[in-house]
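Fold these two proteins, one after the other.
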Amino acid sequence: MNLYLRYFDKETLVHDVDDAIDFLASIQEIGMNPDLEADIRDYVASDVYYPKRYKIRPRVYFIIIKTEAPTMLDFKQKKALRSNPANVSNPDQRDFVPTVVSKLAEQRSGWYEGSLDFKRVVMIPGTCKHEYRDTHFVAACKANSGLDCYNRIVEYLKERVDNRSQFPSSKGKNFKFTYLGLWK
């Protein structure tokens, strides 16, 4: 396990924690002390692979990244990304993690249940003024994808609510959909 360290334009790739501490001690602004040294040793010994950021003063940090890259060039070219043990046969192939956009666009004809939280314009009877109210709407509809479900729900609501109502993005947290199954 190697360590990449960077503080502004000063950077290095070291092979053990002692070299990392020597590098940081050589930078006077960091102010290496026993507490910082102990924290760095704990981080290196842990199973955590996330980069670690240390605050020097407000808005000034140095970072440490665990890597398996043998050289700085390999690290810069991202040739030593941690591979998934299940994917050892082909390390260049990474697992596909579905995103919100890819789930929305996935073509799958059938019944969908979509729920939408939107700002609906309603009139207050006593004052005849209008206000926005948070409204939750759930519908089951025939659609070809999650995005098609969203479009059908919004189209339906636009015909029935005040045109000043505000609808969220299909990619946001205010729209959720579930595939219910094929239609007959």
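Now the second one:
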Amino acid sequence: MTTVQIEIGGERFPARFEAEAAPRTVAAIRRILPYEERIIHVRWSGEACWIPLGDLDFGLGYENATSHPAPGQFIIYPGGVSETEILFAYGPVAFASKAGPLAGNHFLTITEGLETLAKLGRETLWTGAKSIRLTAA
């Protein structure tokens, strides 16, 4: 399984796992699929939405880590300085928390529909949380 279907607020996006670059992270995410939650807009990082996961421990270290995910890229911060979280960029991002700059493992990339993703991200900023669902395609 290398593809994922992402649904955010009723919109669907095809995506691919970054299995070569982040094999342990992809394996951890595959174990929780299908995954359903709500996204909220980030507080510190720019044009992105996130899923706060508190002190959930996936047992991950860093692999394929970035502080500047591109639009459509999903990263997971494995915890430590700040809480565990999944973040996806819809525009420019400098991933950070109130404790300062962070890096997360890039594990998933949306392959189509980035213009719609940006619209959903801005809507989340102004109107609040949206549903998100990740399923194996």
